[in-house]
Design goal:
By secondary structure, the protein is of the alpha/beta class. The chain has 2 domains: 2-84 and 184-278, D-Maltodextrin-Binding Protein, domain 2, CATH 3.40.190; 86-181, D-Maltodextrin-Binding Protein, domain 2 (3-Layer(aba) Sandwich), CATH 3.40.190.10. It has helices spanning 15-22, 25-28, 42-50, 61-69, 116-127, 143-151, 162-170, 193-198, 200-215, 223-230, 235-244, 254-266; strands at 2-8, 31-37, 56-60, 74-81, 86-92, 107-110, 136-139, 157-161, 174-181, 187-192. The longest helix has 16 residues, at 200-215.
């Protein structure tokens, strides 16, 4: 039995994986899944893929596309979450900034270079018609680092998934001044090329298991309460999140990849646009 090391953020999007593991769904198909949690997000997962620390990543679409272009030896095998990610734009609770527009020429806290929080700061700046060449960043690692940076005014705002950071807003640590949805599907499943070459069938079986779980995920009895309890969320927030979130069982389209590459290229975050075949692998 092969063990596939799967990396993902410790967020509600990935509960289907945990339920499939807990219920023995992968073992039934003679697979062993070792889950590796990445509080630092996409940048940390890209590094782990490059360093052969994980085999599979449930990762932000724009982040993995940029990193594959930059040399990450991995490929996208499927879209995982089709709906956009709602990035909350947060300031310290006692900050004098009241609107997103007030944050122009301030410093953004980001988990690391190449992370979702880094790339989305550019997307947000473009949306606000700011000078993207003037953006300034404080690298903080994860949410805990962002709390420290905003509290000490080492950075003035932090972008992270809205519902994940909602408990910090409720506790009066952060205050959300706006949202910035991704203009494309938010999460994909990426696999190291070496694994695709040597264990193609096992990867296909892994996808079949997780696809079966995501198809029926919203119909699981009491799923709202399960999510709220596991992820320290208010029930009304989880209900709202479930309504706007949709999983996918299909490969990302060439049109979606073109849109992301065009955005990244226009923002000078990638030096070239590459053929779709360089980014995806069809099982």
């Amino acid at each position: 039995m092969i063990t596939l090391r799967v990396g993902g953020v410790p967020e509600h999007f990935n509960l289907p994986w945990h339920l499939a593991m807990e219920e023995g769904d992968f073992e039934y198909d003679h697979l062993a899944i070792e889950w590796v949690s990445f509080p630092g997000g996409t940048g940390a997962m890209n590094a782990a893929l490059r360093n052969n620390e994980i085999d599979v990543a449930i990762i932000l679409t724009e982040g993995i596309i940029k990193d594959i272009i930059d040399g990450n030896p991995s490929k996208i095998v499927q879209t995982y979450v089709q709906s956009p990610l709602i990035w909350g734009i947060h300031v310290a609770a006692n900050s004098t900034f009241q609107e997103v527009e007030d944050l122009e020429n301030t410093k953004a806290a980001i988990s690391r270079l190449g992370s979702g929080s880094h790339l989305m700061a550019y997307i947000n700046a473009e949306k606000q018609h700011w000078d993207t060449t003037a953006l300034d960043f404080e690298i903080v690692g994860d949410i805990e680092g962002a709390i420290d940076a905003l509290t000490k005014d080492a950075a003035q705002y932090f972008m992270w998934e809205r519902f994940t950071t909602k408990p910090l807003v409720d506790k009066g640590v952060f205050r959300r001044v706006g949202d910035c949805p991704t203009p494309w599907p938010c999460f994909v499943i990426a696999v190291r090329e070496e694994i695709l070459e040597n264990h193609r069938n096992e990867v296909r079986e892994m996808l079949q298991v997780i696809d079966t779980k995501t198809i029926s995920f919203k119909e699981i009895p009491n799923i709202e309460q399960i999510l709220a309890t596991r992820y320290d969320q208010k029930l009304e927030d989880i209900i709202e999140w479930l309504e706007i979130t949709s999983w996918s069982q299909s490969q990302i389209t060439s049109e979606e990849i073109a849109k992301i590459q065009n955005n990244l290229f226009d923002l000078k975050l990638i030096s070239e646009k590459v053929p779709v075949s360089k980014l995806i692998y069809n099982l």
